[in-house]
Amino acid sequence: MNRKKKSIFGMKRKSKIPFTVPIIVVDSASSSSLTSESLVAKTSTYCSIPINSEPKVDIIEETDVVEELAQDKDVSDIPECRSALRRNSISLPNLDDLELNLLQNYPRSVSEEEETQIMVNIESDASDDDFIAKPRAPLRNYRRKSVTSPMIKMLKPNGDDDDRSNSPANSITSINSLASLLREKMHVFPGVLKKKRPHDYKIRACVAFLFLTIIFLVTLAYVLYQQKVLQRAYFEKIKLNNVARLIEIYNMEGFNVIRGRLGVTMNYKQAHSCMPFDERNDGSICLEWMDRARLYLQHYNMNSEVRCYNLQWFSLSNNTYPTDCFDLSPGTEHWYGGGQTSESAWPLERGLHAFEPFITGRIDEHEWGNVLRRFFISSKGTAILIDNETPLYVSVSNERGRELCLQGRYDDFAFVNRQHPLPHLNYSVCTGPGMTRLHSFMTEKSLWDGLKKEEINIIYSLLTEPLWEITTATKEEFTEGAVANYTDDVIALGFLKQGHVLINEFWQKQIGDFAVDTERFPSLEETITIMHRRGFRIVFSIQPYISTESESFAHAVKNRYLISERFSDRRIPALARYKSLESAGVLDITYNRTVPWLVDKLRAVMNKYKFDAYYLDLGVAYNMPHYYQCEKPLINPDHYKTQFINSIQGAVNIFGVNSAIEMPRAPSFVSLPQFESSWDGLQRVIPTILTYGLIGYPFLIPGAVGGDYEAPGWWSTANFTSDADVLLPDKELYVRWLQLATFLPVIRFTHLPSKYGDDKVLEMARILTLLRQQTVTPYLKKYANEALDSGLPLIRPLWMLEPNDPACHIVADEFSVGEDLIVAPVLYSGARQREVYLPAGVWKDGIDGSLRKGNRWIHDYKVEDNQVAYFEKMPDNTRF
To answer: What residues does the Glycosyl hydrolase family 31 C-terminal domain cover (predicted)?
Structure first.
């Protein structure tokens, strides 16, 4: 058992000694006669100290007895010593006298250097009986002196004088007291902790962090290297990772303009080169994913500035729908086009909807509106054009960030007629020098080609004169007298031009008769003659539907003029519903005998009554019978309306159409969808007309001022003012709608402003009519000529003026007439101010005539209920 002793000099010395020192037990009776000589004699008797032995080294405190031994006897001469078992402590009578005696007899010649080299390691392996030869008085209770960790003492820095806290002099123990011993240990313990050297945790943590960082960097470098190895460059401007199917396309300047994921529905990663018999000789790249799909990648130049890349997917399995998704992440770029969405989103990424067939519909029931084109364009100067034969599904998803996804999929309605045995997806991605220039390249040019002078005059007349649409609550109320009275009211206003009068489908007794109902219109020929003399132009609305109650229905069934039911006899017509029609057949325009029969009917009516043109109310794709089957297969239900327009446009005059997927030949206009008579309906007008103009329809007919009333649910929720004959929209809504319509290509009325019986409404209508004639109409004519030449829209988004201005890309409640007039109407109930953004340039305020600098927002711009905010572009050198 190792023990520690204190030097007789009251000092602690640490030294290593390769020998052991015995423990001498002294009887209390003989302690008074103990001298240093007798103590040395006892030590010689019991042990010999080996000098060359290598016992376990320990650090202890030398006792005064050991130091006396070291002076009286040379320990190097002791051969070996066995240390006897000792007790934990000794307690001697007259111990202070003994220490004083030893101190006085201690030789002064011993050097300090020799003292510090002494180290005692006490090992006891003898029993107490070896040392006790005779009866002795009982020993006092042993007291263990304070202990300091040997290792800590070895490492203790110089100058540390805290050792006194561990000395016996500071002990607080008392004899025969266990509690005192515990208190002593508790008193010593904090000092021991102080002297412990803290472990180098910071160094170890730093090394561990560096190690983990190196592992991470090495792993990252490996992953990036593998991706780089897998990524190949095609046609200089395309980078495609064949495994992850990630594509990046760069423009001529080397900037990345579009990112996408290809084949996102495939769970097979490895791409292979196509077999030789699947390769093409047109320079395209062919890649195949085993039993999933095959991809052809090709490039072509539209001109010197526009480069396009064509991607064609062909599925190799019925369960594989080729699907590609392109990034729409907010803040990076903005996308536009396609058509009106259910959210009327502007830009496109503000909307969100799942995969739906890309066919025309009603926005209150379907995802897409009544006018579409397979064309999308981004603010980075990238455009996507999808082939018309692709069975196209489109989504704006948010599963992996906002994405525009294109999918090829057949179904049992929209794309039931397969152009290929398995699903396919065919589209092109084009890049150009900028958004506006790219859009200009992608629009249809030379719309004026083949136009006659009178046809151009029709365009001008629509831009300068109103369109009057006569509607009644029921067919029975729609009579010759109602038409005459309506035109009389228009003339009575005095400040509105006559314009075109649109007579809806109720001019027939039954829809599909293609003959005037002589009971309700007994002298229509004479009435039309009078209206012509007053300056009106008359337009009849027709539909491709034949009511089952019409006299023409039986004849059409007999001669197979109607679309038939799929999986049934060709003589069984497929029935549909449309507007007021509960049951009707649909003319099969693909049957070669149908068009001549229809044209003869239309010409006969026009020749008899001498009206000016027809308006084609074709409906949307979902108005077709679900299981339709034509004589010749259609690509999709929308293909029907394109064939219908093209079949009769050369035979009779076409004033406009209410649904399209291709721009009809001028002077035909395309109608916006009908809007709910509410503030929400008013707010949808601007995004819709901007989108339609952007996708290639410059000549547009907006909805009626105040909204439309087709859906019965709107009647009960809108705020109406009762008139003797009709229900009128809310007065404020009507005025704000009229302010907006003043700046649109065509201003369309169903309700005359005089019906409100309010002088303020009439005065507002008079002021706006004068504004349109003096300010708006010249700009509309100017940009109509430009549209005929370049295909650019009359009503344009602000980014067409400043494509590099980020603010212009997100403004959805302003528009410009060409490049010279910016309009910011009020679109919210009760609003008397709004935010206005002006692009770069100098603009003249239309309300107070002041000049305003562009490229900034005008906050809280004041607009009273009888005012509309508009700004005219001034020359760049204009000074304030």
So the answer is: 791-869
Cα gap 820→526, rounded to integer Å: 44
Phi/psi of residue 833, each to 5°?
A: -155, 160
| Per-residue pLDDT at 228 | 55
- Angstrom distance (rounded) from CA 208 to CA 206: 5
**pLDDT band per the 50, 70, 90 thresholds, residue 232:** low
What distance in Å separates the CA atoms of residue 270 and residue 288, rounded to the nearest whole number? 9
Q: Is residue 229 scored above 90 in pLDDT? A: no
List the domain boundaries for the chain. Answer: 31-142, 201-231, 235-442
Peptide bond between residue 667 and the one before it cis (omega within 30 degrees of 0): yes
C-alpha pair distances (Å), 276 with each of 281, 287, 291, 292, 793: 10, 11, 17, 18, 47
Beta bridge partners of 392: 408
Q: Is the peptide bond before 347 cis (omega within 30 degrees of 0)?
A: yes
Give the CA count within 13 Å in the CB-facing half-sphere of 440: 13
Separation between Cα atoms, residue 77 and residue 216, nearest integer Å? 66
Question: Would you list the DSSP string of 416-471?
Answer: -S-SSSS-EEEEEEEE-SSHHHHHHHHSPP-TTTT--HHHHHHHHHHHHS-EEEE-
Q: What's the one-letter identity of residue 723?
A: D
Mean of the per-residue pLDDT values of the chain:
80
pLDDT classification of 530: cutoffs 50, 70, 90: very high
| Helix 64-72 and helix 36-46, axial crossing angle in degrees, nearest 10 | 80
Cα separations (Å) of 106 from 25, 103, 167, 180? 21, 5, 22, 34
pLDDT band at 23 (very low <50, low <70, confident <90, very high): very low
Contact 504, 469 (CB under 8 A): yes
Residue 266 to residues 294, 314, 322, 413, Cα–Cα distance (Å): 11, 13, 8, 25
The yes or no reply on domain 235-442 and CATH 2.40.70 is: no
Structure tokens at 521: 């219109």
763 Cβ contact partners less than 8 Å away, ≥ 6 residues apart: 866
SS3 274: coil
Assigned token pair, 864: 């009273």
